[in-house]
Design a protein that fits this description.
It is built from 8 helices and 28 strands. The strands form 4 sheets. It has a 6-stranded mixed β-barrel. Strands 16, 17, 18, 21, 22 and 26 form a 6-stranded mixed β-sheet that branches. The chain has one domain: Acid Proteases (Cathepsin D, subunit A, domain 1, Beta Barrel), CATH 2.40.70. The N terminus and C terminus are likely disordered. The chain is of the alpha+beta class and 538 residues long. Belongs to the peptidase A1 family. This is Peptidase A1 domain-containing protein. Keywords: Aspartyl protease, Glycoprotein, Hydrolase, Protease, Secreted, Signal. One of its GO terms (biological process) is proteolysis.
């Protein structure tokens, strides 16, 4: 893949194995199941900072987005050039995308179960949790996902992290530069305390799937070393265990108020036995949770394992509630619940990418239909911006990755520049100075009341195969300072050439991935109602 090729990343995955119906999960294989998808700024997240304003949270998310996008660029550039991943003195490592996470999910590991709040990462495949036992008590004081280095050198900060935050005259507290929120207390899984724990041997499909990340211990068990884009690392034993997921009600069976009409099925548990996962006995660097659930497209992901071992199939979906509503939860769905069937659903084929972890699709063009006009007025003809070809012999499309872990949307400048020119011509608001260097187009909305008064047109993405996804103003603009609204679409660059469809653009869209059919499907939805307890009790 050319390193200058724009990509659009849709990351979503988990690791799993045989599904065992518990008494509370009757019919799970027929109906599928859903788990709560928690934004890091939600009141349900341990990283929620009540002192931070919505504008401060938006700026912090933009900075995390820049750091994550840069890591994706460097990773794909190395893969494309054939350059090896940086070594650590312990052999070859598998480098994946790192700590710039946006969503969390709760999992319960072992028998009896230990509850872990893990990062849901669309940029990697392996599911792993922090482990502690007799053989690694020396790590009992490690603070995985904190600034402690467990006795090893911490990686230097990235350029994005070291850039001081710009001044903010709005009166808001300064936004964190990238990830300054204090880490919650650590939770460790102790293998010896579980009756269902087992290790995975070297000569297994799961171990081979880890490729260069895996090595064989003297006793024949499979070990791994994962290195992340910011230099953080996790290593340990590839293992099997029973994972339990707290399932939530099927949103299609809820009433207009989001209440489930069948109280007996409003919640329950789904057990997945013999799930392949990493039992990480050593973690270093900057990660800030108790584990990581890989949501990529590789063979050890949850969707892949569910498809191989149950009747749920290799499909999943999510519906992202607007993150500005910190009381709302989103949903992550598997099996039949992952089918996107809302009116106007548009599907597009997956494209084989440089790294199978990422979900790559084609973006053919962008349509700006124009602002709303009275029905008596002449309709403005949609204006299309055709995306450039990837290279000789390719179709006239950008290959793009859709990623729930990146906040902003990144587009090639050849596609974005004419779009911005058209938006500035159509939007009649006064311009404002941007409080963040990566956000170029900002408006003063201090005197505007109501979204319709903004006069921001819808933007439609025309995908490979002809499907269209309409982005509302809330998908393309974000308030980053009191009275200041900025475009959440930014241009790729030489330092960051990967095109990414970020999570702001995906808010209030039901996004489904069918790995068997090789498609991604989008449909407009009210995602705050996709979780039956969408509003937290605060």
């Amino acid at each position: 893949m050319e390193t200058t090729t724009p990509l659009l990343l849709v990351g979503v995955l988990l690791l799993a194995a045989p599904l065992l119906g518990s008494s509370a999960a009757v019919g799970a294989e027929e109906d599928g199941f859903s788990v709560e998808f928690i934004h890091r700024d939600s009141v349900k997240s341990p990283f929620h900072d009540p002192a931070l304003t919505p504008h401060g949270r938006a700026l912090a998310a933009a900075r995390r987005s820049a750091a994550r996008a840069a890591e994706l660029h460097h990773l794909l550039a190395r893969r494309s050039s054939g350059a090896p991943s940086p070594g650590t003195g312990a052999g070859v490592v598998a480098e994946v995308v790192s700590r710039q996470f946006e969503y969390l999910m709760a999992i319960e590991v072992g028998t009896p179960p230990v509850r872990v709040l893990a990062i849901a990462d669309t940029g990697s495949d392996l599911v792993w949790v922090k482990c502690k036992g007799k053989d690694n008590d020396n790590n009992s004081n490690s603070t995985f996902f904190s600034d402690s280095d467990d006795g090893e050198d911490s990686p230097p900060p990235s350029d994005e992290d070291s850039t001081p935050p710009p001044s903010d005259d709005s009166g808001d507290a300064p936004a964190p530069s990238a990830d300054d929120t204090p880490a919650p207390p650590s939770v460790y899984f102790v293998p010896s305390a579980s009756s269902t724990y087992g290790r995975v041997g070297c000569d297994t499909k799961a171990c081979r799937a880890l490729s260069s990340a895996a090595s064989c211990s003297p006793d024949g068990s499979c070990e791994y070393l994962y290195s992340y884009g910011d230099g953080s690392r996790a290593s340990g034993q590839l293992s099997t265990e029973t994972f339990t997921f707290s399932t939530i009600a099927d949103s299609s069976k809820t009433n207009s108020h989001g209440n489930n009409n069948n109280n007996s099925s409003s919640h329950g548990q789904v057990e997945i036995a013999k799930l392949d996962f990493g039992c990480s006995t050593t973690t270093t660097g900057t990660f800030r949770a108790d584990g990581l659930v890989g949501l990529g497209g590789g063979p050890v992901s949850l969707a892949s394992q569910l498809g191989a071992t149950t009747s749920l199939g290799r499909k999943f979906s999510y519906c992202l509630a607007p993150y500005a509503n910190t009381n709302a939860s989103s949903a992550l769905n598997f099996g039949s619940r992952a089918v996107v069937s809302e009116p106007g659903a548009a599907s597009t084929p997956l494209i084989t990418g440089e790294v199978e972890t990422y979900y790559t699709i084609a973006l053919d063009s962008i349509n700006v239909a124009g602002t709303k006009r009275p029905t008596t007025a002449a309709q403005a003809q949609p204006k299309y911006y055709k995306s450039k070809a990837r290279g000789s012999g390719s179709s006239s499309s950008n290959s793009i990755i859709v990623d729930s872990g990146t906040t902003l949307t990144y587009l090639d400048s050849a596609l974005l520049t004419p779009l911005v020119k058209d938006l500035t011509r159509r939007i009649k608001l006064p311009r404002a100075e941007s409080p963040e260097k990566i956000l170029d187009l900002c408006y003063d909305i201090s005197g505007v009341r109501g979204e319709d008064a903004l006069g921001i047109p819808d933007v439609t993405l025309v995908l490979g195969g002809g499907g269209e996804v309409t982005l509302k103003p809330d998908n393309t603009f974000v308030v980053v300072q009191e009275g200041v609204l900025c475009l959440a679409l930014v241009a790729t660059s030489e330092r960051q050439s990967v095109s990414i469809l970020g999570n702001i653009a995906q808010q209030n869209l039901h996004v489904g991935y069918d790995l068997e059919k090789g498609t991604v499907t989008f449909a407009a939805a009210d995602c705050a109602k996709s979780h039956p307890y969408g509003e937290a009790d605060v």
